[in-house]
Amino acid sequence: MKTGIIIPCYNEENRLNVSAFKNFISEENKYHLCFVNDGSKDDTVRVLKEIQQTNPAKVSVIDLIENGGKAAAVRAGAKYLYTKSSVKYIGFMDADLSTGFNDFGDLVNTLHTNNNLGFVFGSRAKEASEGIKKDGVRAIISKLINVLIVFILGMSISDTQCGAKVFESNLVPLLFGKKFKTKWLFDVEMFIRLKRYFGKEKTVSFICEQPLSRWVHMEDSKLGLRDSIEIPFRLVSIWINYNLLNSIFETKVDTYLEPAMRVFEVPETLMAA
Predict the structure, then answer these.
(1) What DSSP designation does 259 have?
(2) Is the pLDDT score of 246 beyond 80?
(3) pLDDT tens column, 103-113
(4) Are 8 and 38 in contact (CB under 8 A)?
(5) d(CA 121, CA 209)
(6) Phi, psi at residue 36, to the nearest 5°?
(7) Alpha-carbon distance 151 to 242, whole Å?
(8) Interatomic CA distance for residues 48 and 272, integer angstroms
(9) Overall average pLDDT of the 52-81 stretch
(10) Rounded to whole angstroms, what are the CA distances from 259 to 117, 167, 256?
(11) Which helix (H) or strand (E) holds 33?
């Protein structure tokens, strides 16, 4: 069985480490990379197809015609991978490889070797190593934001926003059955959906926050300082929607392709090879 890795991409033509992805594809057989082009305005799709040619059976490319934000891109990838019988685990990581393949592999290994877990995610805050490099201003903002997130979740999670997460594929209907209410804070919504469905005690028992050995903030991040300042207001909006408005989420995933979504892939029989 394979682990599907969703890699959301927006205007990554000049930022993607093509050689690193090609090497990973050539060396690893237990993963299937699912690149999602989130309506890029540059030639990102061409670069993704170039990477795909390394081994088309190990790589799929989803092209979202319009930019919908990271939440929409990850959801599209999850919906697609959910239909693949050869994929047991599904996760996502950032296109800039701020979290590397080694750390992601450690997350998968933790999930694979512990039957009590269903969701493992990287942390840049919990037991942070010297390999975690953050911009000073962003680090301060992150700490302040996390205080608000912990209040909203009612669970002590040090870093909900790390871009490296992996979970059992059977959680996709619960996590991605309905569109997210925010473009960038969907990670918080994922934890809310888990808690509302399973309850706090069970959720805490099968999620695992695992320290990363390396994480480096990359310049030209799609989430700017202005976006960071707006995050508290968006978090309050999430809290209102899921609590005061008693937002009900669906546990169903539409497996059809949406009109503004194209997939470049090989047949399932080849993918499972």
Answers:
(1) T
(2) no
(3) 999 999 999 99
(4) yes
(5) 5
(6) -120, 110
(7) 14
(8) 21
(9) 96
(10) 36, 27, 9
(11) strand 31-38
**pTM value?**
0.89
Collapsing DSSP to helix, strand or coil, 30 comes out as coil
Residue ranges of domains in the chain, CATH in brackets: 2-271 (3.90.550.10)
Q: Can you spell out the DSSP letters for 232-243?
A: HHHHHHHHIIII
Q: Which two tokens stand for residue 131?
A: 């390999």
Which amino acid belongs to residue 168?
E
Q: Determine the pLDDT at residue 61.
A: 97
Is pLDDT of 272 > 50? no
- Dihedral of alpha carbons 59, 94, 165, 110, sign: positive
How many CA atoms, within 13 angstroms, populate the side-chain half-sphere of residue 182?
A: 21
Q: Is 55 exposed, middle or buried (0-12, 13-18, 19+ CB in 10 A)?
A: middle
Cα separations (Å) of 210 from 78, 103, 185, 194, 241? Answer: 22, 9, 20, 18, 29
For residue 137, the model assigns a pLDDT of 61
Contact of 122 with 164, CB cutoff 8 Å = yes
What pLDDT is stored for residue 79 in this prediction?
95
Return phi, psi of residue 133, to 5°.
-115, 110
